[in-house]
Amino acid sequence: MKRTTAAPICLLLIFATPTWAGENNFVLDPEPPSPTYLESGKAWRETMTPLPPWPQDADLIEFEPDGPSAGFRYFIDGKHLGVGADQVVRYTLVVESRNGGRNLSYEGIRCTPNGQYKVFAYGSGGQFTPLEGADWQPIAERYRHELWGFHFCVPRGFQPRLKKDMIRSLTGHTASRELSGFQAD
Q: What is the annotated signal peptide range for this record (predicted)?
C-alpha cells in the first residue's frame, strides 16, 4: 500500500521538477539586441587643398614640446592654420636648429583615437614641393603627438578644435573649457 502511494508522488515530483525549473523570469531574445541610435558610418574622404603661401616670421607661433630639449625650436604658421571640410587640421610646421637652419613642411593631422599625420609638401627656397603618394601615418614624434593631443584635437572628442582655440593653446593659454573633453560643472 505504501508502494502505491509513493509511486504517484514520485511521478508527480519527476514531472513537476522540469516544469518548475523551466520557469524563468528572464526571457531570452532570439537575437541579441542592437542599439538603435547608431548610424552606419560614412567612408572618410580626404579633400584636396592648395598649398599655402610661404610663412612670414611674424605669423609663426612657437610651441615647446614637453620632455628633454632636442635642440630644435618648433613653430606653426598661425595665419594658415586651418581645418578642412574633411576635418583634417592642416598647418605649416617650421623646425629650426640651434644654428638657425630651418626645415619646413606642410602637414595634416587627423583627430582619430590614436591620431594620424601626413606630410603634404616640403619647403625650400621660398616654395613648397608637393609629395606624391604620401600616406597617413601613425603619430610617433613627440611634437606631433603634442599637437594632436593638446593643441589641435578635442580630447576624447576625436574632432578638431576651433582655430581660435588652437592658437590660444599654442600661445600658452588654455583652451576653453567646453572643448576640453571634460564635463562642465
A: 1-21
52 contacts 92 by C-beta, under 8 angstroms: yes
Using DSSP's 3-state secondary structure scheme, residue 65 falls into: coil
Please tell me the distance from the alpha carbon of residue 121 to that of residue 5, in angstroms, as a whole number.
Answer: 95
Backbone angles phi, psi at 69, to 5 degrees: -70, 135
Confidence of residue 24 (pLDDT cuts 50, 70, 90): low
pLDDT over threshold 60, residue 38: yes
Q: Is residue 13's pLDDT more than 80?
A: no
Q: What is the pLDDT of residues 107-126, one digit of tens each?
A: 999 999 999 999 999 999 99
> Is residue 117 classed as helix, strand or coil in its secondary structure?
strand
Distance in angstroms (rounded) separating the CA atoms of residues 168 and 177: 12
The CA distance from 45 to 66, in Å, is 33
CA distance 109 to 88: 6
* Separation between Cα atoms, residue 66 and residue 128, nearest integer Å: 29
Handedness of CA 180, 57, 72, 144 (dihedral sign): positive
- Using an 8 Å Cβ cutoff, are 103 and 92 in contact? no
Query: Which amino acid would we find at residue 184?
Result: A
